[in-house]
TrEMBL record, chain A:
Role summary: GTPase involved in activation of the TORC1 signaling pathway, which promotes growth and represses autophagy in nutrient-rich conditions.
Presence of the UniProt keyword Nucleus in the record: no
Protein family membership: Belongs to the GTR/RAG GTP-binding protein family.
SUPFAM superfamilies referenced in this protein's UniProt entry, alphabetically: P-loop containing nucleoside triphosphate hydrolases
A Pfam entry, by short name: Gtr1_RagA
Organism: Penicillium frequentans
Molecular function (Gene Ontology), one example: GTPase activity
One of the GO biological process terms: positive regulation of TORC1 signaling
Assembly and binders: Component of the GSE complex.
Record-given protein name: GTP-binding protein
GO cellular component, as recorded: endomembrane system; fungal-type vacuole membrane; Gtr1-Gtr2 GTPase complex; nucleus
TrEMBL record, chain B:
Gene Ontology process terms (BP): cellular response to starvation; negative regulation of autophagy; positive regulation of TORC1 signaling
Protein known as: GTP-binding protein
Lineage: Eukaryota, Fungi, Dikarya, Ascomycota, Pezizomycotina
Family from the record: Belongs to the GTR/RAG GTP-binding protein family.
GO molecular function, one term: GTPase activity
UniProt keyword terms in alphabetical order: GTP-binding, Nucleotide-binding
Gene3D superfamilies: 3.30.450.190, P-loop containing nucleotide triphosphate hydrolases
Native source species: Penicillium frequentans
Record field: transmembrane: none
Length: 384, 333
């Protein structure tokens, strides 16, 4: 085993595979690409060091599970914006699919073929689990899951032994076809089986979390949001910022969304309300789709005056609910639901507060990026 | 109650199972595409009244398409069904295996129509286009519409390819209602004057409950937009969001809606708001905070002018201010 310090050193020799450009490259984002350097927060990452030996420092999401449990479907729906019913035509995965997701923070999604026996000695466990991240285990709830649970147990025990830093997230998947009662039964059964096995092996508080998911509704996005949030180092800072903003502006619920995947990377700490989440997430779709229709490039198209560079939008619905969306940087946008009558009249203040929040947010993230940049430069210098 | 109210009789016909009731439910009854599975076969004729744009009411006759019904329409019910028809919408199923027989029935209907309402508009929808592979769609559609045209007697018909799974349905129906609206030229004249005043790239009027494009005006620069089906796509986007809003605020889609929507991006600004009782107006203006605010303000002013003259009851259908007051609004900028 590498001692931790050495591990850090090796990860700092960064290998940036060229960012994977998904179909879902949203125009909202494209619009801002040319202009965003003004805000100074998200600087283009430089120095792609072609070093196959080096490991990637990006947090890694490992999608595992038996074959046909829905791993690739999840990856396609969440990260590539594939409509759920088209996932029927996905071919089965035969080799490890590595996707680099280039977003507010870079991370990788590794999609494993179900039949792969990665616990065999011929696989370099260090290579797979050595980087900080999460293991997402997908269980097909509509199928016999005993096999899957047994394999998961073996995997958890191995991972826990050598790499206790990895979060283990169990997606009890394809629950859309099950009745509510059946869902809870299966959920409890699986949780019971895994925790029994773990406590037998002496792990009382292993970091294992369970989610009921389906690609046909928002549950898989919700689950992924939770998974990603655990990998964000400054989550609590972010949540505090959002709480302060929300309290001062009278927001009912606020989400900080990653526009590309529509997972939320932080929200205020009020209870999650699925209805709000759905509306916010759909509203992002509306704005992105409308921007797609009207942001064509032509030299004849000229602005008629000054305007803030980030997109901003709000809608008032029939029941006087207001949904307010503000772009934070290339990747993130802040969406809030406002029901408070008074605060709706103070749109100017809300905008101002959101801008302040934006500055705060960019500070939170920029320091980390500057550091990355520095190590990048250092390594680049050392290698050349 | 109002003599000036216009009722237009619209016949919706076609072979059984071709999708007549499905599209009617999606356009007028706020169904989403996958809900239409629940619809049963239409028995005889289902009448519905759809209020559309002020004093225009569509009197929709959804005629069940089974052969037995078709025979009664053409025989004993002939006068009742085919008199006073403003529009006949005939739906063809692209997947149908008996094309010739379909065309024979269609021709019989057309002859009955010629007898009782020779001035009706005829629209033919070649439906379920989603079932055809994308690369063959255009060719098969053109072949089929040529066949249909050859059997349409003296009627000058419009054909549309449509599918409930994408925006083509909105394109087809927008084309249909466009033909039905009284004094459309007046509305269009107003809109283009208004668009010029506020320097808009595009101004679109949407009907409130169906989100069908009533009419639109596009500036020279707006014409350069490479996305040709943007109006239908907008209808689709906004209606989808309306459904989402209804679902999550626990109301029916019919009562859900938007009061106002502002969007500012570095490339364009848009504004969507209620215009008359039955329409939304959608503006696209170039970026620029001040210009945008002016445009919104002017829209509000124009709307007030509209409702005032509507109260005075001067005009028919779409209340219009005289051209001078438009100018006044323009000068307010």
């Amino acid at each position: 085993m590498d001692p931790d310090s050495e591990h850090c050193l090796s990860t700092s020799c960064l290998l940036y595979t060229p960012a994977y450009k998904t179909n879902a490259r949203l125009s909202l984002e494209i619009i801002l690409q040319g202009t965003n350097h003004v805000s100074g927060s998200v600087q283009p990452r430089s120095a792609l060091i072609p070093n196959t030996q080096a490991r990637d420092a990006k947090p890694r999401l490992l999608l595992m599970g038996l074959r046909r449990s829905g791993k690739s479907s999840i990856a396609s729906v969440v990260f590539h914006k594939m409509p759920p019913n088209e996932t029927l035509f996905l071919e089965s995965t035969t080799r490890i699919q590595k996707d680099s997701i280039h977003s507010f923070m870079d991370f990788q999604v590794w999609d494993f073929p179900g039949q792969l026996e990665y616990l065999e000695p011929s696989f370099d466990l260090e290579d797979i689990f050595g980087s900080l991240g999460a293991l997402v285990w997908v269980i097909d709830a509509q199928d016999d899951y005993l096999d899957s649970v047994a394999r998961l147990n073996r995997t958890i025990l191995t991972v826990q032994q050598y790499y206790p830093g990895i979060n283990i997230e169990v997606f009890i998947h394809k629950v859309d076809g099950l009745s509510d009662e059946f869902r809870t039964d299966i959920y409890q059964d699986i949780v019971q089986r895994i925790s029994d096995e773990l406590s037998d092996a002496g792990y009382e508080n292993a970091p294992v979390h369970y989610y009921l998911t389906s690609i046909y509704d928002y549950s898989v996005f919700e689950a992924f949001s939770k998974v990603i949030q655990k990998l964000i180092p400054n989550l609590s800072t972010l949540e505090n910022l959002i709480n302060t903003l929300g309290n001062n502006c009278g927001f009912e619920k606020t989400y900080l969304f990653d526009v590309l995947s529509k997972i939320y990377i932080a929200s205020d700490t009020r209870p999650v309300d699925m209805a709000c989440y759905e509306m916010c997430s759909d509203y992002i779709d509306v704005i992105v789709d409308v921007s797609e229709l009207y942001s064509w490039d032509h030299p004849e198209r000229r602005p008629k005056g000054d305007q803030i560079q980030e997109a901003e939008s709000h809608v008032v619905l029939h029941d006087d609910t207001m949904i307010h969306l503000m772009e934070m940087n290339k990747y993130l946008c802040l969406v809030s639901v406002i029901r408070n009558r008074e605060s709706k009249e103070k749109r100017g203040l809300i905008d101002l507060n959101c801008r302040t929040f934006q500055d705060g947010l960019n500070e939170v993230f920029s320091r980390r990026w500057e550091q990355l940049e520095e190590t990048n430069h250092l390594d680049g210098g050392a290698l050349t | 109650m109002d003599a000036r109210k216009k009722k237009r009789k619209v016949l919706l016909m076609g072979k059984s199972g071709s999708g007549k009731s499905s599209m009617r439910s999606i356009i007028f009854s706020n169904y989403v595409a996958k809900d239409v599975r629940r619809l049963g076969a239409t028995i005889d004729v289902e009448h519905s009244h759809v209020k559309f744009m002020g004093n225009l009411t569509l009197n929709l006759w959804d005629c069940g398409g089974q052969d037995a019904f078709m025979e009664t329409y053409l025989a004993s019910q002939r006068g009742n069904i085919f008199s006073d028809v403003a529009v006949l919408i005939y739906v063809f199923d692209i997947e149908s295996r008996e094309v010739d027989r379909d065309l024979d029935t269609y021709n019989a209907i057309i002859q009955a129509l010629r007898e009782f309402s020779p001035n009706a508009y005829v629209f033919c929808l070649v439906h379920k286009m989603d079932l055809i592979q994308a690369e063959h769609r255009q060719r098969i559609y053109e072949e089929r519409s040529a066949l249909i045209r050859s059997r349409s007697e003296h009627f000058r018909i419009d054909t549309f390819g449509s599918s409930i799974w994408d925006q083509s349905l909105y394109k087809a129906w927008a084309g249909i209602v466009h033909k039905l609206i009284p004094n459309l030229t007046v509305i269009e004249r107003f809109l283009s004057a208004f668009a010029k005043k506020i320097d808009a790239e595009e101004v679109i009027l949407f009907e409130r409950s169906t989100f069908l494009t009533v009419t639109s005006v596009t500036s020279e620069i707006g014409e350069l937009n490479p996305i040709y089906d943007r109006h239908e796509r907008l209808s689709n986007i906004m209606k989808a969001f309306k459904h989402c809003a209804a679902r999550n605020t626990l109301t029916t889609p019919a009562s859900a809606g938007f009061v106002v929507m502002h969007t500012k991006t570095p490339q364009f600004n848009t504004f969507l708001g209620r215009f008359t009782d039955n329409t939304y107006i959608f503006l696209v203006v170039p970026p620029g905070e001040a210009a945008y605010n002016c445009a919104v303000l002017n829209t509000m002013l124009a709307r007030e002018g509209f409702s005032k003259s509507a109260a005075a009851g001067r005009t028919d259908g779409f209340p219009l201010p005289p051209p001078e007051s438009e100018d006044a609004n323009g000068h307010a900028t």
